[in-house]
Amino acid sequence: MADRGRITTAVIPAAGLGTRMAALAVDGCKELIEVGGISMLERTVFELEQAGLERIIAVSSPAKPALDAACAELNVEVVHQIEANGLVDAVLCAAVDGPVLVALPDVLMPDLNVSSALLQRHSGGTMLATVKASEPWCQMLTDTGRVLELEEDRILAFADKDKESPFPEGEIRIIGRYIWSAEFFEHAHLGELEALRQLEILHACPVKTAYIDVGNPVGYAYAQSIFNQ
Questions:
Q1: Judging by DSSP bridges, how do beta strands 100-103 and 9-13 pair with one another?
Q2: Residue of 162, 211, 226, 220 lying closest to 22 (CA atoms)
Q3: pLDDT in tens, 46-56
Q4: Each residue of 86-119: pLDDT tens digit?
Q5: At residue 3, does pLDDT exceed 70?
Q6: CA–CA gap between residue 96 and residue 134 (Å, rounded)
Q7: Which helix (H) or strand (E) holds 38?
Q8: Which domains can be identified in the chain, with CATH numbers?
Q9: CB 3.0 to 4.6 Å from 187: which of 15, 97, 194, 198, for a disulfide?
Q10: What is the three-class DSSP state of 80?
């Protein structure tokens, strides 16, 4: 599979149960929670459409019929991840033949269409959108997805996940918008982080925007304060 062709397909992983947001979930779906009057699912789909993606696939769950119905109204294809088995497995369920843009629906970037930025910069291989963490939003994140070593636009090392610690201000974080290449999928059985570590070249796409994890109540409240201005 070639990685230099135009990327036309995006996958929205949305099969998870979202236990941190269970009290706010709409019909059992955190992706249908509205932020500023628009659901997280709609915001993600609109971002991808505006970026020029021609095919959008949502990976749902048999336990989330309301999400399937919402996707149908948005003309988004749906496949099911039968059992919750992580992000990489969810994307594999979409069975995309070629490089794909992955967009997590429970993260919002209010200042920029990050999917568009990725596509404009991508010239092959795997690329991850990154941002320099700043207050106040970095205080709402745990220490995951932290880039330890960066050389120009190449990511050389990641920190291990530490969900018990806050994300350090001023450090570089990957932010829920990725282009995964054929080479990445060759190592996918190792899991996301280990597959990334196996790549000979891993590109970063630095962007300047706030990054809000709406998958937790604190981030949700902050997102409402931003998008309701």
A1: parallel
A2: 220
A3: 999 999 999 99
A4: 899 999 999 887 799 999 999 999 999 999 999 9
A5: no
A6: 35
A7: strand 38-39
A8: 9-227 (3.90.550.10)
A9: 198
A10: strand
| DSSP assignment of 82-109 | SS---HHHHHHHT--SS-EEEE-TTEE-
- 3-class DSSP state of 148: strand
Q: Which helix (H) or strand (E) holds 12?
A: strand 9-13
- The two beta strands, 77-80 and 142-143, are unpaired
Distance CA 65, CA 115 (A): 27
Residue 61 neighbours by CB distance under 10 Å: 20
Query: From CA 71, how far away is CA 179, in angstroms rounded?
Result: 22
Q: Which two tokens stand for residue 68?
A: 């399937």
* Stated length of the chain: 229
The sign one gets for the Cα dihedral 185, 187, 188, 192 is negative
Q: How far is CA 124 from CA 64, 131, 226, in A?
A: 35, 20, 34
Give the whole-angstrom CA distance, residue 1 versus residue 45. Answer: 26
- Helix axis angle for 40-50 and 114-121, nearest 10°, is 30
Q: SS3 for 120-138, per residue?
A: HHCCCCEEEEEEECCCCHH
